[in-house]
Design brief:
This protein is of the alpha+beta class. 30% of the residues lie in helices and 24% in strands. The strands form five sheets. A six-stranded mixed β-sheet has the order 10-11-12-15-16-19, with helices on both faces. Strand 5 and strand 6 form a beta hairpin. Helix 2 crosses helix 3. The longest helix is centred in the first third of the chain and has 22 residues. The radius of gyration is 24 Å and the shape is globular. The protein starts with a helix and ends in a 7-residue tail after the last helix. About 6% of the residues have low confidence.
Length: 402
């Protein structure tokens, strides 16, 4: 049996499931004050050609009553410029922060086991919240959940800080302890977390009942696409019951790894495109030779974001998978880092994602074909995924491959 009957089966299943889901499920400065006591400047007019930012920094360092480090002023200036963009995803990393950030994307770092994301200003004043929690990590053992807002780290107020600063404070030497205050709803609690070194793979596979392979991807770090392919190749026995690709609590990562994961289940064709200012849209295609016939379900939830949404939407738009779960986070923008002369870096939003069908995910997210009401236990979504795969296999005549 070829891929065409499978595609018809997915389309038929998605139409029926969308109707069921629709019937059964409900929707989801700086402030200047009055100045007194001003004295004469006494400073000569600066020579033309020196930038205003440099002039101001020099004046503050030399004359302000409260001493301040020049590096701190430079950081404040850069972060102020980024705030002027009105884009919560554009970020400045200090040198050590950028090194740690790159290490995390390579899949190894020492910390408490959480991925952070910037909060929406409309969600209560900015700051950062937990995007996902590494299973088995110190944060997981302490009961930290996606959506928890980080308030303080070792007594330092970070309620309005950015991701680089907070993640830098959370990382540290293995077996050292950090005290973190979180807010969940109206409740606040403080936990002591012992840092650990994470080098575990972000891909796991297990066999479920009905000969179903459950492939979980925690983050799109370096090499994840190859890891997914290897996990399926090494799995004993053909997953005749289909594959569940679990992207729940996956906050994203590297776009090229998202394309590589989608390519495991596609045979060429578009995965995602993005538009940059002043340039035509650029399309990233899947590699050829992927498995296009094994029944596939993608599991998502509100913490599925960014690169994970790219994978889910591509497989959905290409009629390759049925998406099960709760509407995803809705981060549809592309960030690109560029290193500055001192080793620090700017990560700027340079474009917006578009799915193969031309949809923008920014602020919208991916709407599942089969909706699981928010707040349901994780096992509920898994049971729904198994039910969907059982139906797809039956539609294909009882075999998982064509």
């Amino acid at each position: 049996m070829g891929s065409r009957p499978y595609t018809r089966a997915v389309l038929s299943a998605r139409r029926a499931l969308r109707v069921t889901a629709f019937v059964a499920v409900a929707a989801v400065a700086y402030v200047g004050g009055v100045v007194t006591g001003v004295v004469g400047s006494g400073d000569p007019v600066p020579a033309r050609g020196s930038g205003v930012i440099d002039e101001a920094a020099d004046r503050i360092v030399r004359k302000a009553a409260r001493p301040v480090d020049r590096k701190a002023l430079e950081r404040a200036a850069v972060e102020g410029m980024l705030r002027a963009l009105g884009d919560r995803w554009s970020t400045y990393y200090g040198r050590s922060e950028f090194t740690s950030f790159q290490a995390a994307l390579e899949g190894h770092y020492s910390g408490v086991g959480i991925w952070l994301r910037t909060r929406s200003l409309g969600a209560g004043g900015g700051g950062v919240e937990v995007g996902s929690v590494q299973p088995g990590s110190p944060a997981a053992h302490a009961g930290v959940l996606a959506g928890d807002v980080v308030l303080r780290v070792d007594g330092r107020d970070v309620s309005s800080a950015g991701v680089p600063l907070v993640s830098g404070l959370l990382r540290g030497a293995e077996r050292s302890t950090v005290e973190v205050a979180f807010r969940r709803g109206s409740a606040t609690r403080t936990v002591a977390l012992t840092r650990a070194t994470f080098t575990t793979p972000d891909v796991a596979i297990e066999r479920l009942r009905g000969n179903i392979a459950l492939v979980s991807v925690a983050a799109f770090t370096r090499g994840v696409g190859a890891d997914v392919q290897r996990a399926l190749d090494a799995d004993t026995g053909t997953p005749a019951g289909g594959v569940i690709l679990d992207l729940r609590d996956n906050s994203g990562g590297l776009l090229d790894e998202a394309v590589a994961v989608a390519s495991v289940f596609l045979d060429g064709g578009p995965v995602v495109s993005y538009e940059r200012r002043g340039k035509p849209p650029q399309t990233l295609d899947a590699f050829t030779g992927g498995d296009v016939s094994t029944p596939l379900v993608v599991l998502v939830n509100p913490s599925t974001a960014s690169a994970a949404e790219v994978v889910a939407s591509a497989l959905q738009d290409r009629n390759r998978a049925v998406v099960v779960g709760t509407r995803t986070y809705g981060k549809g923008s592309v960030q690109e880092p560029s290193t500055l002369s001192d080793g620090s870096a700017l990560e700027l939003t340079v474009g917006r994602y578009l799915t193969p069908a031309g949809r923008s995910l920014d602020g919208v997210g991916v709407e599942p074909d089969v909706v699981v009401p928010p707040g349901e236990p994780a096992e509920v979504a898994e049971r729904r995924a198994i039910d969907v795969l059982t139906g797809l296999v039956a539609a294909l005549g009882g075999t998982g491959r064509g």
